[in-house]
Amino acid sequence: MNLHSEERNLNRVTFRSSMYDVLLEPSLSGLCQSEKEAYQLILDFMEPGQMSQLDKLSFLNAVSTLSSVVRDQANGNMNKYYPKTLLAKKIETFILEEPPEILDSSVRQQAMLCIVALR
């Protein structure tokens, strides 16, 4: 058994594609540049971790933008771009992270509007 090769394997980091990256390959050809950027922002921010207020608002704005475009498409379905249930869960965490005594926070308001836009 070679100790050096075992050490190298422990130090190696491998990245795998997300299940959704493999399963979902939406056609972005019908989207304008800002809508493509909104889609990419959604993908970037779906990773777990803390987000700033600005990041949360950017993510929520991107979801609203893409949702409204998809809704206007013939046979448009947001699930073709990203599963709505996962987006809703992420948005739910934003709502739960907000202080309950502050009902009029901009993140909470935008999150509620996003949930409606996903329907």
Strand share of the residues? under 5%
List SSEs in N-to-C order: HHHHHH
Q: What best-fitting shape do the alpha-carbon axes yield?
A: globular
Distance between the termini: 57 Å
Q: Tell me the total number of β-strands.
A: 0
Based on secondary structure, the structural category is: mainly alpha
Mean pLDDT: 81
DSSP helical segment count: 6
Spans of at least 5 consecutive residues whose pLDDT stays below 50 are: 5-17, 19-23
Q: Helix coverage percent of residues?
A: 55-70%
Number of domains: 1
Rg result = 18 Å
* Sheet with most strands: none
Please characterize this protein's 3D structure:
The chain contains six helices and no strands. It is mostly helical. The protein has one domain. This is Maestro heat-like repeat family member 3.
Walk me through the topology.
Layout: H1 3-11, H2 19-23, H3 33-45, H4 53-72, H5 84-97, H6 106-118
Helix pairs in contact: 3-4, 4-6, 5-6
Short synopsis of the structure:
With 119 residues, the chain is mainly alpha-helical.
Q: Which properties best describe this structure?
A:
119 residues; 62% helix; Maestro heat-like repeat family member 3; mainly alpha
